[in-house]
Design goal:
Strand content of chain A: 25-35%
Shape of chain A: globular
Largest sheet of chain A: 6 strands, antiparallel, barrel
Strand order of the largest sheet of chain A: 3-4-9-8-5-10
Number of helices of chain A: 0
Oligomer: homodimer
Largest interface: A-B, 64 and 65 residues
Helix content of chain A: under 10%
Amino acid sequence: MSDEPNESELRPGEVAVGLPAVTDAGVYFIGTIHTPWRTRSECPKRGSADGPVCSIVVDPRWREALTDITQHTRIQVLYWMHRARRDLVLQTPFRTGLTTGSFALRSPVRPNPIASSVVELVGVDGTTLQVRGLDCLDGTPLIDLKPERTSH
Amino acid sequence: MSDEPNESELRPGEVAVGLPAVTDAGVYFIGTIHTPWRTRSECPKRGSADGPVCSIVVDPRWREALTDITQHTRIQVLYWMHRARRDLVLQTPFRTGLTTGSFALRSPVRPNPIASSVVELVGVDGTTLQVRGLDCLDGTPLIDLKPERTSH
């Protein structure tokens, strides 16, 4: 698994910057997300509560941190989009063809490729959660689970 | 700025685990959040749209990534809770006194101390955003900005 930028070329209007020489903090991958989607093009643009049940397998080290998770039906999942390049400040999404800033998009391509999705918790078996609402690649590293907080 | 666990003692029922020897990916701090709150006890439990205007200062490297940000009024902010310990799997929040799993809480204490807040964008001046709805410490490192997506 690598954080290196991938080899894809820039689209018209896209701008890359030099990345800082060092990172400032470290993330632990705390589990793995399993979905039916093996390539970016297969992934739905946005997860749906009508979508397939996917699995989130939490590493045994964190087992006790799942205590009482079933008291919540909507869970915020943070995950690491490990295949995304991190150096684009302007992007031209294929779907729109419009160039805009990375912080004005929810694209995987951003300085810190952290995604946030809200899922419905369908079931828990040991350290495996069954959820609906994801749209990420099979094998995506998990970095956090939190009860959803209704946005204000 | 340190990622080390702080010196606070465990409360009744709390359980710490050994952290992995290495992290799996690196995060860049891409800016700094300025709020009126200098200590954890001063921070509101939850940011409010009626709360004070706070500033998010983005590092100049990422300036172009803010292009078109003003087309969005509600922004999801990810930040790094740099003072939180990372090794607790069971926690006993002071407010409730009830012991529960870290993933069933939105506490700062979690394997990856990443917070997610949705804020109202009040204004932008260069690389500084004025927003309402934060509840974090002054000086908190910024790690991402995204347009809010209504949760499904």
